[in-house]
UniProtKB/TrEMBL annotation:
Residues 51-260 form the Solute-binding protein family 3/N-terminal domain. Pfam families: SBP_bac_3 (PF00497). Residues 1-39 form the signal peptide. It comes from the Bacteria. This is Amino acid ABC transporter substrate-binding protein (PAAT family). Keywords: Signal. SUPFAM superfamilies: Periplasmic binding protein-like II. The keyword Signal applies. InterPro entries: Solute-binding_3/MltF_N (IPR001638). The keyword Signal applies.
Length: 260
């Protein structure tokens, strides 16, 4: 039988084309393997305190503060990877540098790291049962009462408050924070220190155990508390601050604030 004769030049051309397409196949396979890694942004491991609705709703990964941080971290080019711990544990983990950042801290706490610009503000108040006739005109007045506050309050509410905690034998801090509501409405303390939004939310948690319908008196003896992020890397802090400023300028920051 006759065959098809291929010249030497044609054979070289065929071999070059085969080699070319083989190389293209290798490159395309490598790109396909690399694409998932490129598509997923790196994780930024951030420490949060425990459940503090409406700021942090731990079980649902949402809340005013949580969503602000999630948005800013995304703008930084990262994926938020949260870890929720009691406030005292958060402090110890920051000290040993276990995570990239921690939320809801203040530079006055003395924790090591690089602090961001303030990104959220809480309004803490003193809360007492109206029937007790508590009278508070200043932080110093708390010294005369049995007081409960959220964990680490002595680190974030200023020097005057810290001084009061050191000289008031009836002062205590509570975690989880709903314990404050329980202690106040059951009469075990005279005054609870909390952000009013958080305290009001936790009334719904303890309502089955204590009478949360008792009238309360609010005392605005604290200035607003500005909170920051603390990073273990100065560059990450700088990128966070820039993303925060951009979110404020383009209106997305305000949209989250208004939603809550």
């Amino acid at each position: 039988m006759g065959g098809i004769w291929i010249g030497e030049a044609a054979m070289r051309l065929i071999l070059r084309q085969c080699l070319f397409w083989r190389r293209v196949g290798v490159v395309m396979s490598a790109m396909a393997l690399a694409l998932p890694a490129c598509a997923a942004p790196p994780a930024l491991h951030v420490l949060f305190g425990l459940n503090k609705p409406p700021y942090i709703i731990e079980g649902e990964r949402r809340g005013l503060e949580y969503e602000l941080i999630d948005m800013i971290v995304s703008d930084m080019g990262y994926r938020l990877e949260p870890t929720f711990v009691p406030p005292a544990r958060l402090i110890s983990l920051v000290r040993i540098g276990e995570f990239d950042a921690a939320a809801t801290v203040r530079e006055t706490s003395g924790l090591p790291g690089y602090y961001s610009s303030p990104y959220i503000q809480y309004q803490n108040v003193a809360i007492a049962l109206a029937k007790r006739g508590v009278a508070l005109h200043s932080i110093d007045d708390l010294s005369a009462y049995r007081v409960v506050a959220f964990q680490n309050a002595h680190l974030v509410l200023g020097e005057t408050f810290r001084h009061m905690t050191e000289h008031n034998a009836s002062y205590q801090e509570a975690s989880p924070q709903w314990i404050e509501n329980n202690l106040l409405f059951s009469g075990h303390v005279d005054v609870a220190i909390a952000d009013w939004k958080i305290f009001r939310y936790f009334n719904g948690i303890v309502a089955g155990h204590v009478n949360t319908q008792q009238p309360v008196s609010l005392f605005a003896i604290f200035p607003p508390t500005d909170y920051q992020m603390v990073f273990r890397d100065a560059h990450l802090r700088d990128v966070f601050d820039k993303a925060l400023e951009h979110a404020k300028r383009d209106g997305r920051y305000e949209k989250i604030m208004v939603r809550y």
